[in-house]
Amino acid sequence: MSVPDYMQCAEDHQTLLVVVQPIGIVPEESFFRIYKRISAVSQVNVRDSQRVLYIRYRHHYPPENNEWGDFQTHRKVVGLITITDCSSAKDWPQTFEKFHVQKEMYGSTLYDSRLFVFGLQGEIAEQPRTDVAFYPSYDECESVEKRIEDFIESLFIVLESKRLDRATDKSGDKIPLLCVPFEKKDFVGLDTDSRHYKKRCQGRMRKHVGDLCLQAGMLQDSLVHYHMAVELLRSVNDFLWLGAALEGLCSASVIYHYPGGTGGKVGSRRAQGGSLSAEAGNRHRPGALTSNGINADTSAEIGRAKNCLSPEDIIDKYKEAISYYGKYKNAGVIELEACVKAVRVLAIQKRSMEASEFLQNAVYINLRQLSEEEKIQRYSILSELYERIGFHRKSAFFKRIAAMQCAAPSIPEPGWRACYKLLLETLPGYSLSLDPKDFSKGTHRGWAAVQMRLLHELVYASRRMGNPALSVRHLSFLLQTMLDFLSDQEKKDVTQSLESYTAKCPGTMEFITLPDGLKLPPVPFTKLPIVRSVKLLNLPTSLRPHKIKSLLGQNVSTKSPFIYSPIIAHSRGEERTKKIDFQWVQGDVCEVQLMVYNPMPFELRVENMGLLTTGVEFESLPAALSLPAESGLYPVTLVGVPQTTGQITINGYHTSVFGVFSDCLLDNLPGVKTNGCTVEVIPALPRLQISTSLPRSAHTLQPSSGDEISTSVSVQLYNGETQQLIIKLENIGTEPLETLEVTAKTVNTKEKLYGDFLSWKLEDTLSQFPLKPGKIATFVVNIKVKLDFSCQENLLQDLNDDGISVSGLPLSSPFRQVVKPRVEAKPVNPQESSKGGDFSHVKTLEAILNFKYSGGPGHIEGYYRNLSLGLHVEVEPSVFFTRVSTLPATSTRQCHLLLDVFNSTEHELTISARNNEDLILHAGECQRMAIQVDKFNFESFPEPPADGTQYANAKQLEEERQQAKGLEINSKLDIWEASVEGVLNQLVLEHLQLAPLQWGDITCGIFPTVIDTRITSFFSSPCKSLFCI
């Protein structure tokens, strides 16, 4: 026997072998449809008997194996069923002749045969025949199963007659010597009358009768015959047949102990088929075993138990039988099949280590030169058996060998599809899954080197199959999951191969369905690049939406009153779905920052990188980036535009790397830090852009409140000068600008301002509203600087009284106390007084103009935006009043006010006073001018309240009264645009005041006055300026 049956199991010893074959040209689909119906009748309760016959069907069986039918009767073909197509009566004789030829192939062992003819109708079909059945078509053959049952009953009749004939033959002289094919030449010339020969004949016949009893459903009788055969054959050292007797004894014992079978699915079907006849168990004769292994006859059960081997003895006898088979070179197939049967029994007994010893022995059994198909079958069955005993990696090893045999070079047409299918089946044994999610959980399982080799073989097999998409998927999986185990050169090789494959078939995120129904999940490149953190960015300061305070209470969420609650779960998923405390705006570009890392030893190009979102319609704006080799953390900003309002969740990002498109979800990225991925998108708001008539400032304003300034402008002015700032407001958004509020505040200055620093008329601008997208409105701001430079003594030229009599006490101004007398011969040199490089006399004013605007759907929901303009003003001194005194006039209600005026600029100035001639001052020049003014009364000053709560102390009250007097002087003398602070003394104040009717205590102090310089040009010399007093 040369062809092993790797599917055999111990319970096959009780089956009758029936071959089902086609004759002539029969459609394969039609043949297997009938074959399936025939093979469904696998066990039959014999009529008028309590026995059950088990049938084993084969559609292909080597005739040379049939020659071993005497050695083990379950190998003998006892039934033949042929299926043929015959459409006309003239073809019938030829068809029937083919049937006879087919019978002659197994003629020596056949008990009975049948011919099923499909398509023939007429007179021939109507003739009653026992061995031929006619059916009009493959669809009209309802009686197939009934004819098969009748056919099996006929087999039983012949089997029973043979059993009785052999069992009742007691004459040793007439017992023939049963032989296997290779023994016949060895027994030529032997002494047939010897005691040794007769015992050999008796022992072999006892073993043969035991096989017949087992097939006939007489389990107890078979056990008895097997025991007798073992004793007889052992006495004559007939080892080959002794091994067969021991194997028969093991098979009968296995059938007793394991009625469900040991052959896996086949055994299960047999057990299920046995339940078809529920009454069969009650009608069994004593000594017969039911299909489920239960017998109502206790005495028979006891007798069977005596002869039956225990589960441990079964394995020992199998070992002994296999050792006997091993003595014969031509019994390699028998030995191999016995090993397989023993392994199936050990698998049920869960004795894996012993089973592996049997399998290891089966691997080294030397058979004849096997064909490639037989090798594939052998390695596949070994793999299956190793799988059954729990040796998964060993199973995968043999299955991989079987896969390689499918594509062996000696095969003219390699079976790449079969190779690929077998390779897929090896994956679990190597702890390999085709789902990339399984590789993101904890540590790596399995041998990475073997796994990479297997994945490379899958790539090659799929390419040879002509399925480039499958090759790309497996190569992508290799790169994604085995990246940490690839060397630098292997990374380059794999990526080059991947790029060459994707040039013809780009990688996608679609599932790939294989012909057998297996679905390969997509493989996103979450490691190319590796993402360490994801952060949603707030909009720029000028575009951030703000909620009107009166509407804030509508959306305030109710929070728990507890500081901590153990019920709250803090999972990573909840952190990602938590809402962020800022908002995005519909229609505006929003940003998400990723910190990425390139693990490859070469530059990594990432194309089409964008965001994956849910909840809101979102237009992602893809980006392309190039990361240097092993770049370390590298910031990447992804942008997009939300098109609708609501809650938007950033689920991940998509990329295109090496031609493979990937959708990378944050939930599948281990160790990614995020500040939350859900943000609210509010309705659209207009966008305001401002441009001014002043140049941009190089100074960066640092407001104390922490507000950011979108843009800053700067200007240089002389003290007292006024200049217009023209601001163009352009609506660059898509929504109309409907409302505008402007506010200003001075920042980062300790200087005291006099008058309004910034002033405007908003009504002129609002008249141009609503401002449609793309339109421009103009807004004018007046900048007026009035500061006190009274302490800047380094700006003053040394002055001399020149014999002029000045009344009053010494000036109380700090700078006046340190002024030195001018030397007679010292000329006034304006250039020396204002040498370049000394800017300590320049004072700085900084202010912020805040534009609060809104419009569109966002305005309806109560949202607005702020846009801030920074203003940096550098103020230089213009005119100083160095000395103030008074002279009596001719009228008691008037007096002369004497002012020493100093020009601290580099330009020529003109000083104008009411009813006086203009005074021209050159740069750095100081002159005296007299002004006739009316005296006046000081009207009202703050008085201390009765409860004393308004002012903290007497000093504060005094300061308030002094400031009130200063304001009174400014108003009465109409000195509204000049600074004389610090130059008024007690005597001057008395000369300016009308004689009172009642005198009281008046405290004199320092009073502010303001002067306005209107300078035509700062850059032409000389420059005319006008001072109004």
From TrEMBL:
<dbReference type="Pfam" id="PF26254">
    <property type="entry name" value="Ig_TRAPPC9-Trs120_1st"/>
</dbReference>
<feature type="domain" description="Trs120/TRAPPC9 first Ig-like">
    <location>
        <begin position="531"/>
        <end position="659"/>
    </location>
</feature>
<dbReference type="Pfam" id="PF26251">
    <property type="entry name" value="TPR_TRAPPC9-Trs120"/>
</dbReference>
<dbReference type="InterPro" id="IPR013935">
    <property type="entry name" value="Trs120_TRAPPC9"/>
</dbReference>
<protein>
    <submittedName>
        <fullName>Trafficking protein particle complex 9</fullName>
    </submittedName>
</protein>
<dbReference type="InterPro" id="IPR058563">
    <property type="entry name" value="Trs120_TRAPPC9_N"/>
</dbReference>
<dbReference type="Pfam" id="PF08626">
    <property type="entry name" value="TRAPPC9-Trs120"/>
</dbReference>
<dbReference type="InterPro" id="IPR058565">
    <property type="entry name" value="Ig_TRAPPC9_Trs120_1st"/>
</dbReference>
<dbReference type="Pfam" id="PF26282">
    <property type="entry name" value="Ig_TRAPPC9-Trs120_3rd"/>
</dbReference>
<feature type="domain" description="Trs120/TRAPPC9 N-terminal">
    <location>
        <begin position="186"/>
        <end position="259"/>
    </location>
</feature>
<feature type="domain" description="Trs120/TRAPPC9 third Ig-like">
    <location>
        <begin position="888"/>
        <end position="964"/>
    </location>
</feature>
<dbReference type="GO" id="GO:0005802">
    <property type="term" value="C:trans-Golgi network"/>
</dbReference>
<dbReference type="Pfam" id="PF26280">
    <property type="entry name" value="Ig_TRAPPC9-Trs120_2nd"/>
</dbReference>
<keyword id="KW-0333">Golgi apparatus</keyword>
<feature type="domain" description="Trs120/TRAPPC9 TPR region">
    <location>
        <begin position="353"/>
        <end position="500"/>
    </location>
</feature>
<dbReference type="InterPro" id="IPR058567">
    <property type="entry name" value="Ig_TRAPPC9_Trs120_3rd"/>
</dbReference>
<dbReference type="InterPro" id="IPR058564">
    <property type="entry name" value="TPR_TRAPPC9_Trs120"/>
</dbReference>
<comment type="similarity">
    <text>Belongs to the NIBP family.</text>
</comment>
